[in-house]
From TrEMBL:
It holds the Pfam family WCX. It comes from Dictyobacter kobayashii. InterPro entries: CBASS_pafABC_assoc_protein, HTH_11, PafC-like, WCX_dom, WH-like_DNA-bd_sf, WH_DNA-bd_sf, WYL_dom. Residues 139-202 form the WYL domain. It comes from the Bacteria. Coiled coil: none annotated. This is Transcriptional regulator. Residues 230-305 form the WCX domain. PANTHER family: PROTEIN PAFB, PTHR34580. Residues 6-59 form the Helix-turn-helix type domain.
Length: 310
């Protein structure tokens, strides 16, 4: 990023509220001295920047000061188009009409030269989204509930059974071509993750009466809680390559010699059935070192599979 673009970006950031020199330096990967020089240059250009000293101080703009809309560069245009095209690859996405209107507005705002450059880059660079076939008729309702804190009564089809639950959605995200909803379950008294295409029905509900369990349940503790048993798994180089793709555990791999790795994390024992499936899929490329209970469950699961092939 050149200096002119950085100065413009600083003004746009300050439009959103006060920022410290440290925040600006980290954001643009420059030194604080460079930020001081940039602020001084903006003041010399007539930008009304207010400097507040002290622990809670920083830089802000005079009230009612706004920057005129700026033309997108070719790279900025490409990034927007790449993000929109990647979202469009998902089998079902929210705000379809808004996405199409945004594309139309971008086309109208972009200089023809930038549009041609962006199209060329889109043919060169692509984010790989797995092809899936499903529908998410409740995704916009879940997004709205996550934003407002609205409780919902849902009927959900898991891999084992269909159940009715009272949920408060927290956030939605996409991984592996699917949409997921992280939500607090009143019946389970814990946060869980739900695949959005498996909701059968969703309807608003009043906030349930708080009925916290008498004692903290191990299953309700968050991942990484120090009171949970630590899972330790030795991975071969191939096992590392496979687990690096996992959106939940990939960050917990510790590098070892010969490109092998050690997967270490803490999770509730109630998650072991899910973990067993992952370990079985890795076969000889994963060895459970701890805890003993997980090793025992994995042995039983492997023997049960072996007995099918006498």
């Amino acid at each position: 990023m050149n200096r002119v673009d950085r100065l413009t970006a600083i003004v746009m950031l300050l439009q959103g509220g006060q920022r410290t020199a440290r925040e600006l330096a980290q954001r643009f990967e420059v030194s604080r001295r460079t930020v001081f020089r940039d602020i001084e240059s903006l003041c010399e250009m007539g930008v009304p920047i207010i400097t507040t000293s002290g622990p809670l101080g920083g830089y802000s703009l005079m009230p009612d000061y706004t920057l005129s809309p700026l033309q997108l560069t070719a790279s900025e245009t490409f990034l927007l188009r790449l993000a929109l095209s990647s979202v469009s690859q998902l089998a079902d996405t929210p705000f379809k009409q808004e996405r199409e209107s945004l594309l139309a507005k971008l086309a109208a705002l972009m200089p023809e030269q930038h549009s041609d450059e962006a199209e060329h880059l889109l043919r060169t660079i692509q984010l790989d989204i797995p092809t899936r076939h499903y529908a998410t008729p409740f995704i916009e309702q879940l997004i709205a509930s996550a934003r407002t804190g609205q409780w919902l009564v849902v009927v959900y089809r898991s891999g084992q059974r269909t159940s009715q639950q009272t949920l408060r959605p927290i956030r939605l995200y996409s991984a592996g071509g699917f949409w997921y909803c992280q939500a607090y379950s009143h019946e389970r008294q814990e946060e869980r993750t739900y695949r959005v295409d498996r909701f059968i029905s969703v309807s608003p509900a009043t906030a349930p009466t708080a009925t916290a369990p008498a004692a903290p349940a191990t299953a309700s503790l968050p991942y990484g809680h120090p009171s949970l048993p630590e899972v330790c798994i030795r991975l071969t180089a191939y096992g590392v390559m496979m687990m690096e793709r996992d959106p939940h555990l990939g960050h917990a791999i510790q590098a070892m010699e010969d490109e092998e790795g050690l997967l270490r994390f803490r999770c509730p024992p109630s998650e072991y059935p899910w973990l067993l499936r992952t370990l079985l899929s890795l076969g000889p490329d994963a060895e459970v070192l701890a805890p003993t209970s997980l090793k025992s469950q994995l042995r039983q699961a492997a023997l049960a599979i072996a007995q099918r092939y006498p």
